[in-house]
Amino acid sequence: MKKNIKSILNKSTPLTLKVKDAAAIYHSIKVLPLVKDFTYNEFKKMVDKGPFTQSEWATMLHVSERTLQRYAKNNTVFATINAERALQIANIITEGKRTFGKTEIFYKWIKSNPYMLEGSLSFESLTTAFGIQMILTQLIRIQHGILA
């Protein structure tokens, strides 16, 4: 087996990597913390840094406001899918602040239904994984001077 690997590595064919989206080059991939222990207290720290209301967070996480209130009362651990979504949105807030300088300006931008090459964005874009990726792509484009 070792000889096979060495013979493959010694071949003179170059290895290339093709990237479909240029946004993938701009930022390195960050490893998300373990989401199995994501408690309400950790979520509250994110909420305090961001511009969104509890109602808006409930909409983005696909839970009711009452569920968030129960999580707060008992400092409950979030379901994995909700914790992952909350961390993705926290990343969007960080990129929004990096792009616009203040989270309030990012909030006004996302509420104004901004236009991008693939169509319009809106607050509702934050409720799906695809929409979150589209917002992240647009923020990176703005950071690099590609405004359309």
List the helices and strands and how they pair.
Layout lengths: L1 H9 L12 H4 L13 H10 L4 H8 L3 H10 L5 H21 L2 H9 L3 E2 L2 E2 L8 H15 L5
Antiparallel strand pairs: 1-2
Helix pairs in contact: 6-7, 6-8
Brief summary of the model shown:
This protein is an all-alpha fold and 148 residues long. Helix content is 58%, strand content 3%.
How does this model look, in words?
The protein is mostly helical and 148 residues long. It has one domain (34-143). The chain contains 8 helices and 2 strands. The protein has helices spanning 2-10, 23-26, 40-49, 54-61, 65-74, 80-100, 103-111, 129-143; strands at 115-116, 119-120. A two-stranded antiparallel sheet has the order 1-2. A hairpin with a 2-residue loop joins strand 1 (115-116) and strand 2 (119-120). Helix 6 crosses helix 7 (103-111) and helix 6 (80-100) packs parallel to helix 8 (129-143). The protein is elongated. The chain starts with a helix and ends in a 5-residue tail after the last helix. The mean pLDDT is 80.
